[in-house]
Write a structure and sequence with these properties.
The protein is of the alpha+beta class. The chain has 8 helices and 8 strands. It has a 5-stranded antiparallel beta sheet, covered by helices on one side. A 3-stranded antiparallel beta sheet has the order 6-8-7. A hairpin with a 3-residue loop joins strand 2 and strand 3.
Length: 236
């Protein structure tokens, strides 16, 4: 009589695995992924095995026994059915997991940016600046007299966003905009006396941000580098 071996395990075989119905003089083979619901007509099956690239799992030894009625065939059917259900469940779970809000890198960056801007807001209010205006001033404190296009490249801002910022800063008497004498198509942005003097008042802000972050300076420097690499990858 046919007997099912106890070493059968309900885990999914590797892609490309096959079911073999082995008679004494022939082998009937089918891919494991296609085995569900298929009847094997080897009337004198000697072995029924699941064959993988790393070895074989023996389901049943039998002699002179119809494969279509065998315990092994039913075991294979359950094995393949379980494999399909497990794979489908795993894929669904992975898809659901990938759409959880807290799994999104973009949300982590976005929410951290909002939190950072919130910390900056009262500090910049004392200087009469918004956060975008502060970024413009940082660039000009670093390199005064840049063209509008160069300023936009540094800040990754288009002219439609940058121009209103410059108008407000000019109205606050922090900058001036002048046509380049060598190329009137270019407009250069220069700090006013008040704009240069504001730098001293802003000097304490970076240390305050480091303290609020509750991170060490090396941690913040490493984080900045990682974010810069990510940004570069996204822009290229």
């Amino acid at each position: 009589a046919a007997t099912a071996l106890s070493d059968w395990r309900p885990h999914a075989p590797p892609v490309g695995s096959s079911i073999e119905i082995r008679a004494r003089s022939s082998v009937d083979r089918v891919l494991a992924s296609e085995a569900k619901g298929r009847w094997f007509d080897s009337s004198r099956a000697h072995q029924i095995v699941l064959k993988t690239s790393t070895g074989m799992i023996l389901f049943e030894r039998c002699a002179g026994y119809q494969a279509r009625n065998s315990i092994a065939h039913n075991s294979i059917a359950r094995y393949i059915d379980g494999m399909a259900k497990t794979t489908a469940t795993t894929n669904t779970a992975r898809a659901d997991q990938s759409l959880l809000l807290d799994q999104q890198v973009c949300f982590a960056l976005y929410s951290a940016s909002l939190a950072m801007t919130k910390v900056y807001k009262p500090l910049l209010a004392k200087l009469g600046l918004t956060y975008p205006q502060y970024l413009v001033m940082l660039v000009l404190w670093e390199t005064d007299g840049l063209t509008v296009s160069s300023l936009g490249e540094r800040l990754l801002l288009d002219s439609g966003t940058l121009t209103p910022l410059l108008k407000r800063l000019e109205a606050a008497d922090l900058i001036t905009r002048l046509r380049d004498v060598s190329d009137e198509r270019c407009v250069r942005v220069k700090l006013s006396a008040a704009g240069r003097a504001l730098k001293a008042s802003a000097a304490k802000i970076p240390a305050h941000i480091v303290a609020r972050s509750q991170c060490s300076l090396p941690e913040l420097l490493a984080l900045r580098q990682d974010i810069q690499v990510l940004r570069q990858h996204l822009l290229t």
